[in-house]
Amino acid sequence: MTQRCAPSRLPVLLLLIVVSLVIPGCGKGRPRLVKVSGQVFIDGQPLAAGVPGFIRVVPEGTRAATGQIDPQTGKFTLTTFEEGDGCVPGTHKVAIILNAMVGQESVSLIDEKYADPETSGLTVTIDKPTDSLRIDISGPLKKVQATPISDDPNKF
User: Fold this and answer.
1) pLDDT tens for the 156 residues of the chain, in order
2) Distance CA 116, CA 18 (A)
3) How many CB atoms lie within 10 A of CB 52?
4) SS3 assignment for the chain
């Protein structure tokens, strides 16, 4: 009579070890974030363009953090996954987008180089939570005026 060996438990044990190592480090699969808010300045003055703008902080290899720039104060709070959760620590490229609609055309109110993190020349180093991140750009801040399509005040 032959004796049957119990199936090897080694593959199951290895699988349990791998799963136990991976799960604690996942954190919902998201990188560590720190809360970040600050203000954008143009030529040393708070960016008060009268229209909201946007800031993008672009970490390499992970999701960008974005924030709406307040149209009166230039202040912003960064969001990566959930409102106000912040940004991945490190040194990152930055883009500033500030557009206004003129007729049916979107026009940049600042130098267009700032809209692309590769050409903006802007970087930030984020190593801990902060509420005073300062982003400085140079002007001029373009003044645009919507041109009416018609002289008739009842038409747009």
Assistant:
1) 555 544 544 444 444 444 444 444 445 678 999 999 999 999 999 999 999 999 999 999 999 999 999 999 999 999 999 999 999 999 999 999 999 988 889 999 999 999 999 999 999 999 999 999 999 999 899 887 654 444 555 444
2) 41
3) 15
4) CCCCCCCCCHHHHHHHHHHHHHHHHHHHHCCCCECEEEEEEECCEECCCCCCEEEEEECCCCCCEEEEECCCCCEEECECCCCCCCECCEEEEEEEECEEEECCEEEECCCHHHHCCCCCCEEEEECCCEEEEEEEECCCCCCCCCCCCCCCCCCC
Residues 6+ apart with CB under 8 A from 53: 40, 47, 68, 69, 71, 96, 97, 98, 99, 109
Nearest to 132 by CA among 37, 43, 35: 37
Are 149 and 134 in contact by the 8 Å Cβ rule? The answer is: no
β pairing state of 65-69 and 53-58: antiparallel
What is the per-residue pLDDT for 121? 98
Match 């005073």 to its residue by tokens.
132
Q: Which residue has the tokens 């991140």?
A: 133
